[in-house]
């Protein structure tokens, strides 16, 4: 590969390394093996050999352009855990051999009010997604995610994986963990509160574990009878089969907070009805189509309907340390990368307990 500038000269180094990846060329095409380019580390970059990558429902939404046209080729994956294999000359947080993680962001402007406050996910000009964002370093290319052999990321966006967390079971924390931890913290969930977690998939199962560890009384809402007993094992105090109107009615006006982690169309009004006066429902699930909300689901009871997106970098480290301290790994099913298309089909059926994690060694085969 040609080297136009050296890494020492800054972030415009255009020399790259070709690595194996798994991705798709179009919204209606399956994922297949391909080759992508990774930049040579600049002085603030860390090069990571990817060991494990979680499979988030957002990977599927994006690969299939469900939130609007995606950039192709699309290499998903934003629950990345791996080993540092190379660091730039100015890197101070990490060294070769460290076990590290990368979540949903690889860059932001670092200057706006939100970046200054550690809310890089709400960066005003916009954060750079780990995949499906224009790549500032390799103009004309999208960023490529963790379904790949390696990744190069500015150290500010790299997380430390605590020693006592199993690296594979820690991978889902990088998105599912922080996406549930951040709103639970923001809405001050804790002892004395009854909290509903809706949709027990990758996000929801982490939501149950984290809300419980924060001291709340947790009620899990599921459409899957097969998850009914298991939700209790995950930490739920009570479980509701949401298709059963009688079971739902028993919770009217009882919940302080609801975290909605559902990936598909469903009736939000049914959950707003379960809130107490002044209660809030935060949506983290991001279905393809709009969800109708009735005015009278909110007005009587002064209820709030809100949203939340992942979490900042400092907060993500705080969440990893919290999960390590409370011994909260994700419950995972390990797959080879060659099973990814089948895994997406199972995700659509809610058939995963509770997060697929790709053993990236399978990509090297
Ligand atoms: P997932 O593992 O597929 O879990 C989604 C769960 O939703 C399913 O397990 C199922 O739970 C429930 N569900 C699915 N279809 C349903 C339907 N038609 N009606 C009612 N419930 C249904 O997905 P995930 O990875 O946790 O992601 C969940 C959503 O969050 C996705 O839309 C994803 O894009 C979004 N997300 C948002 C952020 C953010 O920053 N806000 C971050 C990550 C992901 P039960 O079987 O228990 O009913
Ligand atoms: Zn995600
Ligand atoms: Zn910013």
Automatic annotation (TrEMBL):
SMART domains: PKS_ER. It holds the Pfam family ADH_zinc_N. Keywords: Metal-binding, Oxidoreductase, Zinc. InterPro entries: ADH-like_C, ADH-like_N, ADH_Zn_CS, CAD-like, D-isomer_DH_CS1, ER, GroES-like_sf, NAD(P)-bd_dom_sf. This is NAD(P)-dependent alcohol dehydrogenase. The lineage of its organism: Bacteria, Pseudomonadati, Bacteroidota, Cytophagia, Cytophagales. It comes from Nibrella saemangeumensis. Residues 29-358 form the Enoyl reductase (ER) domain. Coiled coil: none annotated. Its cofactor is Zn(2+). Belongs to the zinc-containing alcohol dehydrogenase family. It comes from the Bacteria. PROSITE patterns: ADH_ZINC (PS00059), D_2_HYDROXYACID_DH_1 (PS00065).
């Amino acid at each position: 590969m040609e080297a136009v500038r050296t890494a020492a000269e800054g972030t415009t180094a255009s020399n790259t390394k070709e690595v194996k990846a798994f991705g798709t060329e179009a919204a209606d095409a399956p994922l297949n093996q391909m080759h992508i380019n990774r930049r040579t580390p600049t002085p603030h970059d860390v090069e990571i050999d990817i060991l494990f990558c979680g499979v988030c429902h957002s990977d599927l939404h994006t690969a299939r352009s469900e939130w609007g046209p995606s950039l192709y080729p699309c290499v998903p994956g934003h629950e990345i855990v791996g080993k540092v294999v190379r660091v730039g000359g100015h890197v101070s947080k990490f060294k070769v051999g460290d076990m590290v993680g990368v979540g949903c962001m690889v860059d932001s402007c670092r200057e706006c009010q939100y970046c200054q406050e550690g809310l890089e996910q709400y960066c005003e000009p916009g954060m750079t997604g780990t995949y499906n964002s224009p790549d500032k370093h390799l103009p004309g290319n999208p960023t490529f995610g963790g379904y790949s052999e390696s990744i190069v990321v500015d150290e500010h966006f790299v997380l430390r994986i605590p020693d006592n967390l199993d690296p594979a079971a820690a991978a889902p924390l990088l998105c599912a963990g922080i996406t549930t931890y951040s709103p639970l913290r923001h809405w001050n969930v804790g002892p004395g509160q009854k909290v509903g977690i809706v949709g027990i998939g990758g996000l929801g199962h982490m939501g149950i574990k984290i809300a419980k560890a924060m001291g709340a009384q947790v009620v899990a809402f599921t459409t899957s009878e097969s998850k009914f007993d298991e939700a209790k094992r995950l930490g739920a105090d009570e479980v509701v089969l949401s298709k059963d109107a009688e079971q739902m009615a028993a919770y009217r006006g009882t919940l302080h907070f609801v975290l909605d982690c559902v990936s598909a169309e469903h009736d939000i009004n049914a959950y707003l009805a379960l809130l107490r006066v002044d209660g809030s429902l935060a949506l983290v699930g991001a279905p393809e189509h709009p969800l109708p909300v009735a005015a009278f689901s909110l007005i009587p009871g002064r209820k709030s309907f809100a949203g939340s997106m992942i979490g900042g970098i400092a907060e993500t480290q705080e969440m990893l340390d919290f999960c390590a301290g409370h011994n909260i790994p994700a419950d995972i099913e390990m797959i080879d990368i060659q099973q990814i298309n089948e895994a997406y089909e199972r995700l659509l059926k809610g058939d995963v307990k509770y997060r697929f994690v790709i053993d990236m060694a399978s990509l090297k085969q």
